Each structure stands twice: as C-alpha cells, then as structure tokens.
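Re: the request from the purification team.
They wanted to know what the chain is likely to look like in 3D before they choose a buffer screen. I agreed to run a prediction and write the result into the notebook, where they can find it.
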Amino acid sequence: MTSLSARRSASLWTALTARFSKRDLLEAAIVAVAFLLYFGVRGAVIDRPETAYHHALDIIDVQRALGFFVEDDLNNWVKDRLFWAQTMNLIYFYLHFPLIIVFGIWLYYFRREKYTLTRDAFLASGGIALVVYWLYPVAPPRELPELAARFDPNAPSYVRGFLDTLQVHLGYAYDTQSTRAFVNPYAAMPSLHFGWDLLLGLGIIWAFLPKQRGSTTETPRRGVSTRGWFWVVAPIGVVLPGLQVFSITLTANHFLLDALAGGVVALMGIGVALTLQRWAYPALKRWARPVPVVRRLVAPEGAVPVARGR
C-alpha cells in the first residue's frame, strides 16, 4: 500500500512539474521569497508606537497647513453607511493583492516581454518602502484613537474619532494572531496599497498597448491579441489607483500624503526596473553565461518557452 501510494504521489508530482519549466519554478520561488522577506521585515519593526503616533500627527499638521486634511470627515461620512463602507472595504482588500497576483501570472504567461520590468518595479518599490517604514514609522488613522488614549489623552477629536471599517464591517483585523507576525501596523507611509495599484494600473495599460507598426516584439503567446482590447482595459488601469485613494482614506488606513508618497515610491521602482533592464541584466548575462540558472533568469524577454520539453 505504501509503495502504491508513493508511486501515485510521484506520478502526480511528475504530471504537475511537466507543465512548468525550470524558469517557471525559479520565477515562482523569487517572487515568493521576495514577498516573504517583505512581510517578514515589515512585521519586525513594530516596537515604536509612540514615535509612529507623533509622526502621524506631523502628517496631519502638514495636511491641515496645506488645507487638505479631510480624512476624518471622509471616515465619519462612511462609518454609518454600510453599503459604501463595505464597498470601500472590498476594494481595499480584493483589488490589491488578489488582483496583483492574478495579473502577474497572466502577464508572465501571455506578455513575457513585459513581465520582468513590471515584476522588478513591484519588488524595487517594496524594498524602498521597507527602508522608509524602518526610518519613519507612521501610524494609520485607524490606530490613532488607541494610541491617543495611551500617549495623548488630550488629543483633539479629529484624532480620536477614526473607525477601522475593515474590522467593524468586514471582520478583518490586522492584529489577529494569525497575521500579527507579518503585519506592521505603523507602515502607513508610503501607501503601497496606492503605489502598487498605480503600478498595477500602468502595467495593465502597458500590457494591452497596441504594438507600433514595424515592431519586432514577439507576438504574445497563444495568440492573445491586444487589438480591440486596449480601450476596454485602459480605463480599468486608470480607475484602479483612483479607487484605492478613496478606499485607503475612507477606511481609515492611510492619509492622503501616504498615497502621494506611495506614488513617488512606485515611480522610483519603475526607475530601478528600467536601470536593471538597461544596464544590470545585460552585464549579468555576459558575466553568468556558464551558469544555467542565472542564464534562464536573465533570458531575453521575447524568448517564451514552450509548455513541454523545455
């Protein structure tokens, strides 16, 4: 029985791995390790609540001085309107990581020539954000009532009145036992919820951008054509980051300045990705020609492998 079970397991594993190339498995490992490192490091810097509280007050003061501190009013407006609160909660939760993962997989298999730059922009912006989280922890609006009770009992009402709509209406809390190890509650600045949705929107638009006449870029895999789809999906790429601005503020997860910082970090990530494409990868490819694993990783973007026999 044990031998039969082992043979069946081996057969299933062979059937599964036959569908993926070594490049596929290597790519999955890179992304998985990168995101585990991101959340692991992000969750390791949670021991400065008072500093994060005062940094949040500094952001509020800057926005008040510039005349656009509206997060308290937005949160007050939505907290008693269940439909809109749940809509913002769902946008915040589902139009971020789930959509990024689905789009990343689709881009890898159908727009390989545009995948690596997009991946690098996400990973680079995440790395930049980690440095900022470490150097400048900022409490999100939803944390301010509790922190004010601990460190600032005379805090103004606009600090003490924020409601965590995800916890109240969706039942999702960042500080649950299952997620606590990977969550930094003081990582509001920059907002990668906005920054990564900005990258997602730009990636969607770029993926369906019609090719210029005379372009030598390889035809997308499996005959998936961009023609006729660009004007359908381009508005989605524009709307996604805009929706996240409303979502992150109405749900009391970020300030508007957090979103602005997230956009800057996302653009910096694109700059890093372009630098890698232009200079770093060609140099690495020349240096690592004898190393098969590295050669696969920096393979030409147009070289889309076949499903079997690779």
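For the purification team: The two ends are 34 Å apart (CA to CA).
Please add any questions underneath this entry.
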